[in-house]
Amino acid sequence: MIYIVLSGLSGIAVIVNVAVNGIVASRIGTIRGVGITFFTGTIAAGALLLLKGETLAAGDITSVAIRFAAMAGILGIATTFIFNGLVQRIAAFKMVLLRFIGQIGVSILLDYWLFDLFSLGKCLGGICLMTGLMLFTRQNGSGEETHSNA
């Protein structure tokens, strides 16, 4: 039961994250918004490490782990930058779907590249999400969100 609650809270956090990042980016600019996101994420991760009582000693981290952490940080900044630029142009629902599709796609690639594993279930799930997003976009016309001043 706890996993269902945590997954629901995680989904809510993703939607709130997209909305807040969009608001911040529209008020202070995309680059500064990404900087604030990166800074607060780094502070939060450090606080969680301290609360758990864990440390990062130099001998605990391998060079491979450092490369993956750096690559993940760069990809995180890049995707946040892209999504902050897009959030004002498309609906938040589509933003969340695009992020999930991207996560599934990257996990498929990493599983295959690192572990020589191929998950048919992940591929089918990604295809279903992409198909649903395309049908949703086609049904709503151009796919852009319209704003009224009413």
Which key terms come to mind for this protein?
5 helices, globular, single chain, 150 residues, mainly alpha
Any overview of this molecule?
This protein is mainly α and 150 residues long. It folds into two domains: 1-88, no CATH class; 91-150, no CATH class. Helix content is 79%, strand content 0%. Helix 1 packs across helix 4 and helix 2 crosses helix 3. Residues 145-150 have low confidence and may be disordered.
Secondary structure layout:
Layout: H1 2-28, H2 30-52, H3 63-86, H4 92-115, H5 120-139
Helix pairs in contact: 1-2, 1-3, 1-4, 2-3, 4-5
Number of individual domains:
2
Quaternary organisation of the protein chains = single chain
Secondary-structure element series? HHHHH
Helix content: over 70%
As residue ranges, the low-confidence spans are 145-150
Q: Strand-residue fraction?
A: under 5%
Number of helices: 5
Strand segment tally: 0
CA-CA gap between termini: 43 Å
Structural class assignment: mainly alpha
Mean pLDDT: 79
Could you tell me the radius of gyration in angstroms? 18 Å
Name the shape in a single word. globular
For the biggest sheet, the summary is: none
